[in-house]
Amino acid sequence: MPSPREEGTPDSERPVDPEPLSPLVDAAHPSSARVYDYLLGGKDNFAADRVAADRIAESFPAIRVGAQENRRFLLRGVRYLAAEAGIRQFLDVGTGIPTSPNVHEVVQAITPEARIAYVDNDPIVLVHARALMVSDPRGRVGYLDADLRDPGSIIGSRLVRDILDFDEPIALVLSAILHFIPDEQDPGGIVRAFVAALPPGSYVLATHVTPEHDPRLRPASAGYRDDGVRTQARTAAEFERLVFTDQGLDLVSPGVVLVSRWRRGADEPPAPTPAEVSAYGALAVRN
C-alpha cells in the first residue's frame, strides 16, 4: 500500500497531475458518459445526449433496461471483489457521471480503508466526481482526467500512483466502455497495457454490449456512430478473447455471461430477457 507518510493527508495537499481539467464542455455533441447518465435516469446531460439516446432507443427500445442491468452487475462485481476476493484497491476507467451508490461507496462500506482511483475524459464527469464523491477518511478516492486509449498516461499518472500501490492487487474496472473502442483502435492492446501493469492477484471486471440476442442492436450502434460516438458491439467469444483469454486471465465463475445472470441476488427483481439486456460481463484474476 502507499507509504505511511501519506496516511491522513488531505487530497488537496497531495501531489496530483499537473494537467488542468478541460475548461470547455462540448454540449453540442453527445458524450458516452452523459448518454449513459440519461439512460439511467440522471439529469447531468444535454439535449444532444438525449437526442442520441432517444435515437438509439428507436432501434433498440430496451436500451434503458440494459443500462440498468449493467449498473447492477457493476455493483455486484465490486461487492464480490471487496467482500470475497479481498481487493482493497480499484482503478475504475471510464467511470461515467457519479451515480449513487458509486463504486467507492459500495467498497468502503465493506472495507473503509479501500482506495479508488476514478478515470474519465469528460469534463462534466470530473467536475461532479470532485464535488460529490467523498471518501471514507480511512481510505482514499481520487479522480484523473485521462483517456482509456492512452493507458500509459493513466498507469504513470502521479495521482493514480499516489492512490494505488502497484505492488499490491488492484481491481481494474472497465464497465460499459470497451464497446466504444473499435478494432482499428486496438482495444486488445489497450487492455494488455493495463493488465501488464497489474500485479499477480489483481482482477479485471468488464462489460460489453452484444448483438447476439437482438439484431436491432447493430443499427442502434450505427445510429450512435452517426452522432459522432464510435461503437462496436461484440459477441461473447470476441469479448472473452479481447479482455480475458488473450491477456492470460483466469475467469471467475460463472465466466462470461449476460450481466443480468452474473451472481444475481435473491433480493433482486427477476432478470429481464437476454434480448433486453444484450450485454455480457465477467470478472477474471491475474494469477
Automatic annotation (TrEMBL):
Family annotation (Pfam families): Methyltransf_19
- Mark the transmembrane ranges: none
Q: What are the alphabetically sorted keywords of the record?
A: Methyltransferase, Transferase
Mark out the compositionally biased spans (Basic and acidic residues).
1-17
**GO biological processes:** methylation
* A GO term for molecular function: methyltransferase activity
Q: Can the keyword Nucleotide-binding be found in this entry's annotation?
A: no
| Span list, region Disordered | 1-26
Query: What is the designated name of this protein?
Result: S-adenosyl methyltransferase
Report the source organism. Actinomadura madurae
What lineage, starting at the top, does this entry show?
A: Bacteria, Bacillati, Actinomycetota, Actinomycetes, Streptosporangiales
